[in-house]
Specification:
This protein is α/β, with parallel strands linked by helices. It is 21% helix and 27% strand. The chain has 7 helices and 17 strands. The strands form 3 sheets. It has a 9-stranded mixed beta sheet with strand order 2-1-17-16-14-3-12-13-15, covered by helices on one side. The model has no long low-confidence stretch (mean pLDDT 95).
């Protein structure tokens, strides 16, 4: 088997094609349709999705909910600025006081000074007190939070939406853009709180699109994968095989496992909405001999060509960053040469790229 190089997944993208805002109306994005058989390309819109599905098919969505995980505040001793990005919940240390407003999280910390154990910071006008307990092996910090109300409720008030770094936002806070991101950097079916990045292929779905799919008889099910910073972790290894994924928490309930088994039994297609859904399905299938079972855990699966998909037949996805693990995943499904050719077509046709951009249906 030939060695895959990270440079094999590179392409040049004009900066102006990186979408900085969602489309004015949700559900109006363009949709490039890739047919793997014959390698032909169509240009449609996302509301045309029902035209490509049948009553035998099953759409699988990631129902994770993005929370306002970014905090901007000041160190209590120096008054210097500090930013925290909450990533994963951790157990509260036994020695710490207990209460509804006490929580411990793994966080990224941005500040001009080195964050050392014992430093404290305040956010939200003093409503959030944060103490650095120490540094973790993955570059994050263990942070103990103390608030008067449950932390998630306080974050809804004082936190900011953690949009990706390529979506440029004023660090001082643009309230209009924050209101926009709160609404639009979230799927309409988000249910399980825990993600710091949206499963962006799902941002295109509207109630009207779901009704159209229902009318067609297309079934749907949900998995949960809480999207973490690994989604944006660059591949720095020269050879693809040397990259390691950051684990992300997932769960699959019994009703979803049953729906997938029924879809396969009737000969339908499993249509995964987004890379996080694919990762969840393939993680569970790979661990269970190709079967889908109710389970939960942390996924660190890395999908790149060649990869024998066990649970995914088709995929709706956005356009991805050059050299990214996401571009490698879609290349595994559709073929690297076909994907890179499709991306060149998308650039020529002025498609909008990345989280707030247009989408691609791979059949």
């Amino acid at each position: 088997m030939s060695i895959m190089r990270t440079l094999d997944f590179d392409y040049e993208l004009p900066r102006e094609l990186i979408a900085q805002e969602p489309p004015e109306t949700r559900g109006t994005s363009r949709m490039m349709v890739l047919h793997r058989n014959g390698e032909c390309i169509e240009h449609r819109h996302v509301n045309d999705l029902p035209d490509y599905l049948t009553a035998d098919d099953l759409i699988v969505l990631n129902d994770t909910r993005v929370f306002p995980a970014r905090l901007n505040g000041r160190w209590t001793d120096s008054g210097g600025g500090v930013e925290l990005l909450l990533v994963d919940p951790l157990p509260v240390p036994e020695w710490a006081e207990k209460g509804i407003g006490v929580a411990c999280w793994a966080c990224f910390c941005g500040a001009k000074r080195h964050a050392t154990a014992g430093l404290r910071a305040q956010f939200g006008g003093g409503e959030i007190d944060a103490e650095i307990l120490g540094q973790l092996a993955n570059g994050m910090y263990m942070v103990l939070f103390r608030t008067l109300a449950p932390l998630m409720a306080v974050l809804e008030k004082h936190g900011r939406t953690p949009v990706p770094p390529y979506v440029r936002r004023d660090k001082k806070g643009d309230e209009r853009m924050e209101r926009l991101d709160r609404e639009r950097y979230q799927t309409i079916y988000a249910r399980e709180t825990g993600a710091i990045a949206a499963p962006t292929a799902g941002l295109h779905f509207t109630d009207a699109l779901f009704r159209a799919l229902d009318t067609k008889g297309v079934r749907r099910a949900s998995v949960t994968l809480h999207v973490g910073p690994g989604t944006f972790k660059p591949v720095k290894a020269r050879e693809v095989e040397d990259h390691r994924m950051t684990p992300e928490r997932y769960s699959v309930v019994q009703t979803t496992a049953d729906a997938l088994a029924a879809c396969q039994a009737r000969g339908g297609r499993v249509v995964a909405v987004g890379s996080t859904t694919v990762r969840t399905l393939e993680t569970v299938a790979a661990a269970n001999g190709g079967r889908m079972v109710a389970s939960s855990g942390a996924s660190s699966i890395f999908i790149y060509p060649p990869y024998p998909f066990l649970a995914t037949d088709a995929m709706l996805t956005n356009f991805h960053i050059p050299r990214s693990t996401l571009l490698m995943m879609v290349s595994a499904l559709a073929g690297r040469e076909f994907i890179l050719r499709a991306y060149q077509v998308a650039i020529a046709e002025r498609y909008r790229f990345f989280s707030y951009g247009d989408c691609m249906l791979i059949l």
